[in-house]
Amino acid sequence: MDTLTVRDIAVQGKRVLVRVDFNVPMENGVITDDTRIRAALPTIQYLREQGARVVLASHLGRPKGERAPELSLLPVRDRLAQLLQAPVEFCEDAVDPQALARTRELRDGAVLLLENVRYYKGEESNDPELAALFAQLADVYVNDAFGAAHRAHATTEGVARLLPSAAGLLMERELSVMGAALSTPARPFAAIIGGAKVSDKIRVIKNLLTKVDALLIGGGMANTFLLAQGYRTGKSLVEADKTDLARGLLSLAAETGKRLLLPVDLVVAKRFAADAPSRVVALDEIQDDDMALDIGPQTIRLYADEIARSRTIIWNGPMGVFEMEQFAIGTSAVAQAVADVQGVTIIGGGDSVAAVEKAGLAERMTHISTGGGASLEFLEGRQLPGVAALQAKGGGNL
Ligand code: ADP
Ligand code: MG
To answer: How far is it, in rounded angstroms, from Cα 153 to Cα 59?
Structure first.
């Protein structure tokens, strides 16, 4: 990785502004999943051990520049203090002169959490004045919010340009594991792409096709490829205006000698419902009132064999409507096959991660990305603004 990391910089006695991703799911003020808080602990602990004065900044939800009490980070402060087993101070107004005073009073190893940065209008517009106010709160900036790195906001991008800056440990892991898989993968290298629509993932498919040996397509997006090949797709989710694009991707695969695998059978139902009677059909047996909601058993076998032979796997997007038990079979089977791989396995994308967790297989993957949108953009081969703004190794000015 060519970005400086927190381990490359001196932080003892310094105020370090750490952009974290504490955008946790909450119900009635109670955190329902603290994975993202836990994911930031290594960087916070490292900084405390080094004697840094830690100032944490995060967004929560979309308050759109207004103070929304239900999106306060106070519950996160409490949870973080519990996890750290140390006090965590809280600052209700990050841009008040008082905030500056409070950062100056911090002792080595202390932690201060700022209130939701999206309470300020300038955050999402990357307002230089707001970025400058955040920059005053610290001597050094560390970005550990991989999940927000695809956004150029004041606390993810603007402030990084105003202070000596580096990647946190979580950010480093995300970039190095996914970066290595894309640049120097152990082969065979297979990507599994699923989810609802082709249009969401065209750029990912295009970029991955240049890197992988095999590309396995499932989920709703497979229907568009099948339609492009002349099969009838009934009432299935399909993007009829994207068949040219699907054909383009199929020829790109053929021209570059990549194997692009499509389902050979499907699970269909007449209704989009958990209790709808379903049946397994061959591709030419789909009726006009059928909806394809999962890959079929032959496809599972085909994909599982391909996965078992691979030494690097990147998976984004479920194979079916996994939210409904009877259409989760393809996704669970693929999750199991990926978990059994002797090699590097990477899961990116909110719903794919949820599916792997639901199957109880998260521990068996090499890497579960903490950033849905960010991991997608990374796999598209794009520079993430929050990463591009950090100092490069050998770049000087510390
Ligand atoms: P990720 O979050 O992992 O990137 P997406 O958001 O692209 O995945 O897609 C997930 C959604 O796709 C799920 O809600 C799932 O129900 C839906 N989906 C998968 N297969 C189908 C299908 N055959 N028909 C309709 N929706 C599907
Ligand atoms: Mg999703």
So the answer is: 11
The residues, any chain, with a CB within 8 Å of residue 388's CB and separated by 6 or more, are: none
CB of 270 within 8 A of CB of 225? no
The two structure tokens encoding residue 328: 């989760």
> What b/e string do you get for 77-86 counting C-beta neighbours within 10 Å, with b at 16 or more?
bebbbebbee
Measured from the CB, is residue 373 less than 6 Å from ligand 1? no
pLDDT tens across 204-237, in order? 999 999 999 999 999 999 999 999 999 999 999 9
Q: Above 70 in pLDDT, residue 395?
A: no
Give the residue, by CA position, lying nearest to ligand 1 atom 21. Answer: 220
> Is the CB of 372 inside a 6 Å radius of any atom of ligand 1?
yes
Query: How far does residue 219's CA lie from ligand 2's centre (Å)?
Result: 12
Tokens of residue 231, six digits: 């099969």
Residues with CB under 5 A from ligand 2 (ion): 350-351
For each of the domains in the chain, give its residue range(s) and CATH number, in order of start.
6-171+383-388 (3.40.50.1260), 187-342 (3.40.50.1260)
Mean pLDDT computed over 299-317: 98
Q: Which residue has the tokens 């990357």?
A: 126
- Residue nearest atom 8 of ligand 1, based on CA coordinates: 317
Best CA proximity match to 291, nearest among 317, 323, 327 = 327
- Ligand 1 pocket member 316 (CB < 6 A): yes
Residues 256-294: tens digit of each pLDDT:
999 999 999 999 999 999 999 999 999 999 999 999 999
Q: Ligand 1 pocket check: which of 231, 323, 351 to mutate, most ligand atoms within 8 Å of Cβ?
A: 351
Q: 130 CA distance to ligand 1 centroid (A)?
A: 37
